[in-house]
Amino acid sequence: MSLLARFFPPPSVRIAGLDSQAAARLAAIHATAFARPWSTLEFERLLGERNVTADGLFIGQASAPSGFVLSRSVLDEAEILTVALLPELRGRGYSRPLLAAHLDGLSRTGVLFVHLEVEDGNAPALAVYRRLGFREIGRRAGYYLKADKARTAALTMRLDL
């Protein structure tokens, strides 16, 4: 059974590919989730790269995404660069179908291994990643700078598709 089938989104949720026209919206969502948000220009540049894949989470009939995942692929490996949802959607199960659809799409393009980094202590994200089959393969001490200027570790994780 594919990841997409295991975590198929409810009927009111649609997952669709994104392009550079979504850059401003992605920057706005990203700013609600990270101490060092990426700019619209950074998203435009990433979304313009051939090896970058972006999927958006659309609720109901919405024309703008309420969340997204962005990854970069090289040969048979991909790295999830960032995932973010609007604050009101966090903790409500929307990240699972978004990530499952994204991973399914990566698999269909020949990706065999997916890597990511996540802040140590981000229990909700770690739970989702582990449920999808990611396993911890490393740790980077003091990697993330938090809003209060404290530093926290990043856990590196891998999924074999």
UniProtKB/TrEMBL annotation:
<dbReference type="InterPro" id="IPR016181">
    <property type="entry name" value="Acyl_CoA_acyltransferase"/>
</dbReference>
<dbReference type="InterPro" id="IPR000182">
    <property type="entry name" value="GNAT_dom"/>
</dbReference>
<keyword id="KW-0012">Acyltransferase</keyword>
<feature type="domain" description="N-acetyltransferase">
    <location>
        <begin position="13"/>
        <end position="161"/>
    </location>
</feature>
<dbReference type="GO" id="GO:0016747">
    <property type="term" value="F:acyltransferase activity, transferring groups other than amino-acyl groups"/>
</dbReference>
<dbReference type="Pfam" id="PF00583">
    <property type="entry name" value="Acetyltransf_1"/>
</dbReference>
<dbReference type="InterPro" id="IPR050680">
    <property type="entry name" value="YpeA/RimI_acetyltransf"/>
</dbReference>
<protein>
    <submittedName>
        <fullName>GNAT family N-acetyltransferase</fullName>
    </submittedName>
</protein>
<keyword id="KW-0808">Transferase</keyword>
